Amino acid sequence: MKRTITAISTIITLALPGLAAASSWTIDQDHSNVGFKVRHLMVSNVKGEFRSFNGTLEIDDKDVTKSKVAVNIETPSITTGVTKRDDHLKSPDFFDVAKYPTMTFVSKKVKKAGNDKLKVYGDLTLHGVTREVVLDVEGPTKAYKDPWGNIKRGVSATTKINRKDFGLTWNAAIESGGVVVGDEVTIALEVELLQKK
């Protein structure tokens, strides 16, 4: 009898992944976006994104503060839609992608910040420099099965960094006052997660 109850519980847990205490997920790159924006010439924001990245999440639904995340982003995949600007961003003036081809984020602590909201503290390593940043996170959503039988969830996250904190110091003054590139960079992630089988 005891074995029967255990077997039934196991089947239910596997059939309904949202009930499991902890589950493993990978980022679905085809349905996710790692974007950023920065002030240009003191008058507008230039937006861009990184098109190549991967990551894993361990989500604990019983205690979400025990969840973990690790993300790798390939800096040569940066694009703003303007080839000349992208080439400059890849150069030693900015990301120096030949020397620093990846940036990483590894979580250290997760705190609840309201309904379906979290603060995720972690180390961002960029341009050879590691600093703690805090992600403001919405989600994760409930688990859903797509038409092909895959289990999916989603999260959104934002943070702001000062690029000079990571050694990205290039700039140029403009005649009317101010500089070409702002120091503050807003990072925004829209992530679709795929449950590991």
What is the element layout, followed by pairings?
Elements: H1 2-15, E1 22-27, E2 33-40, E3 44-50, E4 53-60, E5 68-74, E6 78-79, H2 83-90, E7 102-112, E8 117-126, E9 129-138, E10 144-145, E11 151-162, E12 181-195
Antiparallel strand pairs: 1-4, 1-12, 2-3, 2-12, 3-6, 4-5, 5-7, 7-8, 8-9, 9-11, 10-11, 11-12
List the main descriptive attributes of the protein structure presented here.
197 residues; mainly beta; 8-stranded antiparallel beta barrel; 2 helices; 12 strands; 11% helix; elongated
Count every beta strand, where a strand is a DSSP E run of 2 or more residues.
Answer: 12
Q: What is the average per-residue confidence, as pLDDT, rounded to a whole number?
A: 90
Structural class: mainly beta
Strand order of the largest sheet: 1-4-5-7-8-9-11-12
Shape: elongated
Order of helical and strand elements = HEEEEEEHEEEEEE
Question: Quick one: biggest sheet?
Answer: 8 strands, antiparallel, barrel
Weakly predicted, low-confidence segments:
1-19
Oligomeric state of this protein: single chain
Helix percent reads 10-25%
Strand residues, percent:
over 45%
End-to-end separation in angstroms reads 29 Å
Q: What value does the Rg take, in angstroms? A: 20 Å
Number of DSSP helical runs: 2
Q: What is shown here, in short?
A:
Residues about 1-20 have low confidence and may be disordered.
